[in-house]
User: Fold Cobalt-factor II C(20)-methyltransferase from Methanospirillum hungatei.
Amino acid sequence: MLTGVGLGPGDPELLTLKAVRMLQKADVVYIPGGLARRLVEPYCTPIELPFPMSHDEEMIRAQIIENSEKIATDARDKNVVFGIIGDPNIFSTFSRLTVILKERYPDITVGTVPGISSITALMSETGLPITGGFCVTDGSAIKSLIRMKVRKPHELAENLRKEGYSRFSLVERMYMDGMQVLTGDDLPEESSYFSLLYAERDI
Assistant:
C-alpha cells in the first residue's frame, strides 16, 4: 500500500501526530525533495526521488513514470509512505503521481493522510481569518467548490447542477464518531451541521 502523508507547510512542529506515526512505522519512505527530508529525517531514513520543477510536461511525465515504477515495486508488499510538503491532495506532486500509478498499477492501494496546507497556514501568519466564501487557485480555471455546514445536501446539489456541477461527495461528521462519506447522485435530504459537500464540474 502507498500512503501520501502531508508534512505541513515546512515547520517541523506542524507535522501531525499521525504523520509522525506513519513515518515511524513505514517500511519505505519516499520524498520529493530536500525540504521534505529535513522534516522526516528525525523519524526515518527517506529515499529522495527527483521531481523536476519545469514547464516541460513531457519530461515531467517521463520522470514521474520512472518514479512510479520504483514506488510500485515496494508498494505491492510493503507499507510505503510518500511524504509531501503541505497536503497530498491540494496542488500536490503526489496527485500527479497517483494518476500515473492508477493508470499503470491499478492493483496498488493508495491512501492519503492530510497535512496542514499553506492555505490554512497563511491565515495564521497574516492574522487574517476567513469568515466568508473564498477562492483558491494556482491561476487555472475554477472547476470545484466546497460548501461547509451543509444541512440539505440533495437540494444543494440540485441547485449546483444548474451551474454545471455534476460530481458530488458529501462527508458528514469527518473524523468524528458516525463519520460517513457519500459519493455520487444519491445524496440524503438532510445531514449533520458537521457536513462538507465537494462539487466538481467539467471546464
In short: The first strand starts at residue 2 and ends at 6. The beta strands are 2-6, 28-31, 47-48, 80-84, 110-113, 144-148, 165-172, 180-183, 195-201. Helices lie at 17-25, 34-40, 57-75, 93-104, 118-126, 153-161. The chain has a mean pLDDT of 94.
